[in-house]
Amino acid sequence: MSLSTLTRERGTSLGTVFGKFRALVNAAITTGQTLNADFDVSDFDLVTVLASMTGGAATDLTVTVFPFETDETTPLIAALPVTAGTAVFSAGHVAQAIQVNVTGLKAIRVAVKNNNAGSETVDFVDVFAGVTGTDF
User: Fold this and answer.
1) 78 three-class SS
2) Closest CA to 116 of 62, 50, 49
3) How would residue 22 be classed by pLDDT, with cut points 50, 70 and 90?
């Protein structure tokens, strides 16, 4: 397994650190197929995933986040609960934004599934991560 490391940047508020990474850019995805991207989130508490895909309805795209077991090579079969999320359709593209708590985890797998009847293209999957609280 190869984990993508989020690019660390400094925020403007209290010197906070956040991470970001863009994956699965212009990736072909067939009907019912799931594409995965794995990320190291060991320094973060909260992850926001933004995904965009060509499609015809908001339900064409499903984004799910799975934690890895302590061996850091096996993704758990149970997904992390979504703390906030939305999916929209506009101008031939489906976009979904979800947020999950990753406190205490080393790695996650972001799974993007095409529920459309035809093949589509994943425009991108962006992962942003940060820390919560005010003890910086």
Assistant:
1) coil
2) 62
3) very high
For the range 90-95, what are the long-range contacts, defined as Cβ-Cβ under 8 Å and sequence gap of 24 or more?
92/54, 92/55, 92/56, 93/52, 93/53, 93/54, 93/55, 93/123, 94/52, 94/53, 94/54, 94/55, 94/56, 94/57, 94/58, 94/60, 94/61, 95/50, 95/51, 95/52, 95/53, 95/61
Q: How is residue 36 annotated by DSSP?
A: E
Query: Which candidate, 104, 106, 109, places its Cα nearest to that of 125?
Result: 109
Place of tokens 């593209």: 93
Residue 3 tokens, joined: 């984990």
pTM for the full predicted model? 0.88
> 80, 21, 81: which is closest to 51 by C-alpha?
21
Q: Is 62 exposed, middle or buried (0-12, 13-18, 19+ CB in 10 A)?
A: middle
Q: pLDDT (tens digit, 9 = 90+) per residue, 78-128?
A: 999 998 889 999 999 999 999 999 999 999 999 999 999 999 999 999 999
What's the first-to-final CA gap in the chain, in angstroms?
Answer: 32
